[in-house]
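ARCHIVE RECORD
Type: protein–small molecule complex
Small molecule: magnesium ion
Source of inputs: curated submission
Record status: active
Notes field left blank by submitter.
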Amino acid sequence: MANKKGSLSINSENIFPIIKKWLYSDHDIFLRELVSNACDAITKLRKLDMIGEFEEPEGNQYKVEVIVSPETKTIQVVDNGLGMTADEVEEYINQIAFSGATDFLDKYKDKTNEDQIIGHFGLGFYSAFMVADKVTIKTRSYKEDAVPVYWECDGGTEFSMADGDKEDRGTEITLYLSEDSAEFANEYRVKEILNKYCAFMPEEIYFTNVDAVEPEIEEPEVNEDGEAEGEIAEKAAPAPINDTVPLWAKHPNECSDDDYKEFYRKVFMDFKEPLFWIHLNMDYPFNLKGILYFPQINYEYESIEGTIKLYNNQVFIADNIKEVIPEFLMLLKGVIDCPDLPLNVSRSALQNDGFVKKISDYITKKVADKLSGMCKVDKENYEKYWDDISPFIKFGCLKDEKFNKKMKNFILFKNLEQKYVTLPEYLEAAKDQNENTVFYVTDETVQSQYINMFKEQGMDAVYLTHNIDNAFITHLEGANQDVKFLRIDANVADSLKEEADEEEIKSMTEKLSEVFKKAVGMDNLQVAVEKFKNASVSAMITLSEDARRIQEMMKMYNMEGMDPAMFGATGGETLVLNGNNKLVQYVLENPEGEHSELIAAHIYDLAQLSNKPMDAESMTKFIARSNEILGLLI
Ligand code: ADP
Ligand code: MG
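STRUCTURE (tokenized, with ligand):
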């Protein structure tokens, strides 16, 4: 072949600065592109072997080599795949890649948002110019009598092509790294990139640093007979950096629990064992494989954050692509490999792609099926995991209507007996005492006084202690119009109190209100009187459910300084005195009594104490008064 020079320009525009600009954020993907091309070249040759177009020579070991030289600032990707003839270089490198570039330019020249680019445009090979000043290709086709080719391009618009001298089959691509990309000849940096993108590519990949100093192997001592003493240190055979058959690609029947756990540890660096996992494996109507893990959640951290790694034919694409993976599933940790995914488009195009929506729906459905199936056939484990997985499930129900539909009958509530019940079960049990009301506990310690009173009367409540429960309660009330959720301190439940004469209560309230307002020193103190079945409790604080929810909402949106009344809620806190209690009766009968004020102030503090932790000032007063009261006993 005569030396050939040609021009790569498309419409006289130089694409390389554009490649650099657009792919700026992800420079390291060049290695993924080159190594995946090398794997493709080998996979193609394997196929040719299978159909008899090529016969694999004996002793052949297919492999991709990544070779760095920090001294010369080069990185090479070498494969012994099918190679290219001069015509093929012309077609696949000189022309095809540039038609890809033309498409790319057409699509993106008006866009200024870099985030819209997924970093994969069929511009694979040319991404080398993001980091290299000069790229050379030495290649020799598997075809008999193929003439090797040498190709070179310096990142301008010119390339040159000539007969080459490559002796063995395959392709060797050399990047002469630019000044500001020298890091890509650094051993650790390159290993890190290989680990990120190439850890599961389908052909063996070996890494070499040609400038690294080899650790010296000691020569064995030779004895008089000329025999080597001791073991001759054998050089360990180099190991590939990747796992060519990742666990997700295997059939679930072939994978043991230990396999799943080890894969999880390795990929997510999480040394806490996952709770359980779902192996996705489908061929029709599209190809999708993957493993989703439910991680152990550490409650110390407020938010749960997972990682879903997306692969395309074992080539890593990115973490947490929200267009493909439903948002709530990103709380999990997992891998998804979808060879059919159209990646040659921008993310915004992905979003509108019906196919992508189907993938996302499929994954959601699988997760819901697994969870509901577990609840049906393995209730014991489902209950065991419930506390850990419920935030995830509730979040899913809030975010995804389809998931909600499938899961809504499998939501559990832990009750005061520490048993798990469903909403219908709870409502059925509470029907006679408090119809359609679900009492809930958010803090077992602080609300213990209320819990005890409930237990005494044989009433039940459920624990809803997670951040997400606020939103979830609202969601459940929306879905079950008759049902109302009340925190256990929201009012004095009907079944805790006796029927009482309205007039009597009214006059008691008036009298007591005056004494207590004065004793506590609060003019706006809300006072109510009820006759509790349990006479030993003097008073309780109740906090109106609506007012409290508004306050919590304000807290969430950082509006604490504002007046809840603006949102239609009044103060909400009421001191409910027990008309059956001796101390209250004493104050009622002796409003001017010597100790009445002392007793009233103390009753108020005790009620506060069993509702929420006291602030420092109130606590100081409370302790001083307690001492004063003890003093009266001597
Ligand atoms: P894509 O991989 O999406 O086809 P690339 O720009 O990465 O796009 O590569 C263009 C073409 O160049 C490939 O389809 C292939 O035909 C050829 N090619 C690239 N690298 C190699 C290689 N190492 N061995 C053989 N052919 C290659
Ligand atoms: Mg490619």
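CURATOR ANNOTATION: The chain has 17 helices and 21 strands.
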